[in-house]
Every structure is written in structure tokens, then in C-alpha cells.
Design brief:
This protein is of the alpha/beta class. The chain has one domain (6-248): Ribokinase (UDP-N-acetylmuramoyl-L-alanine:D-glutamate ligase). It has helices at residues 20-30, 58-69, 85-97, 123-130, 141-147, 159-167, 213-226, 231-248; strands at 6-14, 34-46, 49-55, 76-79, 103-105, 136-137, 173-177, 185-192, 197-203. The protein has a 6-stranded mixed β-sheet with strand order 3-2-1-4-5-6. The chain has a 3-stranded antiparallel β-sheet with strand order 7-8-9, sandwiched between helices. Strand 2 (34-46) and strand 3 (49-55) form a beta hairpin. Helix 3 packs parallel to helix 4 (123-130). The chain is globular, with a radius of gyration of 17 Å. The relative contact order is 0.16.
């Protein structure tokens, strides 16, 4: 029987449509995959910031996960905004019960506009319960500093050593994102437990339309992985996809603040689904 490459996105809802579950589904569909969802929180937000957050009960998060995973074959699970320690514990326990093999943890802590999306008290739970189950951890520089207990910003020169330090949290691989570097050329670093390393660079695009880039990148990696690519290849393709999506939407105005990338952008060449 034929089936779609399938990703389960576990994240919050962004009412402006640029990040969160909405960005996940747009990316997944754009890359020819099927997206199922588990909502962890509802947010009232726009391009200028997050106005309010309404978390979903941990029990209902569990029910959503169990209902999907017991029925649909999921190739990759991708987590985003989890918000509280209780939700993180429930997600981690349910993933373990279903023995999910490919898990991307995007440790969403702060929105593009600077609003907190994870309780400070939940950080240790994230480190102890969920990250050890991650096939790939995808923090930005600020998130990586918090995970490592650093009070100073991570520089471009420190990224490789910091990526190695993040592996000590128990994940199988780390993609440290350098989108916040104050440089003309951006740098991302991937490293895994087998010692494989990949350094990705790209010219910084002058635009304020970067809302949801972290969600988009993690979902793009999940999509390419679900289509049959190895982690390294999936990361390379996703990196290019996000760069091109930013470029495609750099001059489009959506709202008064940080607009989204162009989620309807599609690569010129799509690889055949590998099964």
C-alpha cells in the first residue's frame, strides 16, 4: 500500500500564521509530505509580538498524540513550542511509549519578537526528559546558551565546540543555528555522535521577514528525512530551502512587524519520494 511521508508536528498555534503549527504545515505540504498535528498551546499573536498564551492541558496533549500515533504511520516527529514542564513530561513519556525512532526537538524558548514561549522552570525538564530522546536538536544561539547554562553570547568561533557540548545532553545530533550572528555571512553547525560534522554558510538576506524561520527549518528537515534522506542530506536541503524561502519573501509586507518567509515558495527541483 502507498502512503505519504508523514510528519507529526507537536507545537503551539500562531494566530498570525507565520510560525508554529501553521508554519510547520505550510512547509511540510510545500515539500510534498503529509502533516499531522498536536497543539500544545494557543497564542494570540501577530507580526509585532505575542499578546496572550493559552496552554492546552497535558492530558489533552497526550490524547492528541496517542490518537494520531495509534492510527497513522509517522516517519518523523518534530516538536516546537511546548511551554510548560508538565507538557514536556507528557510528550516525552508518550514518545517513549510509542518508540518513535526519528525525533527533531526544536527547543523553542523565545519568539522572533522577543516574547517568552517556555517557562523558565521547564528548561531542566526539557534537558532531562525530552532532549535525550532527540535524533536532532536544533537550537539557535540564544537557546543553546540557555541549555548550556552560559551567561554570555555564543560567537561564530565558538559554535563548533558548543555544538559538541550540546551532544552531552543526550541527543544523537545537534544543528546549532547561527541566524542571530551579527555578521554578513551566517553559519550553522551540525555534528552527531558518530563524529560527522557539517558547516553550512549563507549570505545574510536584508529583510525583517524572518518570523517562523526556526519552525520552518525544523519542519523542512523533518520533511526531507521523511522522504528518505539521511540526516546530513536532509539538513543541507532544508538549509537551502529556508534561505530561498526567505529570499522569495524578503520584499513582501505582511503586518507591521516581522513578516513570515514565503511558505508557498517551492524548490525548482523536487526529488522523488524514496520508499
Amino acid at each position: 500500500m502507498r502512503r505519504y511521508p508523514t510528519i507529526l508536528a507537536i507545537a503551539g498555534s500562531d494566530s498570525s500564521g507565520g510560525a508554529g503549527i501553521q508554519a510547520d504545515l505550510k512547509t511540510i505540504a510545500s515539500l510534498g509530505c503529509y502533516g499531522a498535528t498536536v497543539i500544545t498551546a494557543l497564542t494570540a499573536q501577530n507580526t509585532e509580538g505575542v499578546k496572550s498564551i493559552f496552554p492546552v492541558s497535558p492530558l489533552f496533549v497526550q490524547q492528541q498524540m496517542e490518537t494520531v500515533l495509534s492510527d497513522i504511520v509517522v516517519d518523523v516527529v518534530k516538536t516546537g513550542m511546548l511551554y510548560s514542564a508538565e507538557i514536556i513530561e507528557m510528550v516525552a513519556a508518550t514518545l517513549k511509549n510509542f518508540s518513535v525512532s526519528s525525533v527533531i526537538v526544536d527547543p523553542v524558548m523565545i519568539s522572533t519578537s522577543g516574547d517568552a514561549l517556555l517557562w523558565k522552570e521547564a528548561l531542566e525538564t526539557l534537558k532531562k526528559k525530552l532532549i535525550p530522546q532527540a535524533s536532532l536538536l536544533t537550537p539557535n544561539l540564544h537557546e543553546a546558551a540557555l541549555l548550556l547554562g552560559r551567561s554570555t553570547a555564543i560567537t561564530a568561533e565558538e559554535m563548533e565546540s558548543c555544538a559538541r557540548d550540546l551532544l552531552s545532553l543526550g541527543c544523537q545530533g545537534v544543528l546549532l543555528k547561527g541566524g542571530h550572528l551579527n555578521t554578513k555571512e551566517l553559519k550553522d553547525v551540525y555534528i552527531n555522535r558518530e563524529g560527522e560534522m557539517l558547516v553550512l554558510t549563507a549570505k545574510k538576506i536584508k529583510t525583517r521577514n524572518t518570523h517562523g524561520t526556526g519552525c520552518t527549518l525544523a519542519s523542512a528537515i523533518a520533511s526531507y528525512k521523511a522522504r528518505g534522506d539521511a540526516w546530513k542530506t536532509a539538513i543541507e536541503k532544508a538549509h537551502k530551502y529556508v534561505h530561498d524561502a526567505i529570499n522569495a519573501g524578503k520584499r513582501v509586507t505582511t503586518g507591521k512587524g516581522n513578516g513570515p518567509v514565503n511558505h508557498s515558495f517551492k524548490p525548482k527541483k523536487m526529488l522523488k519520494i524514496k520508499r
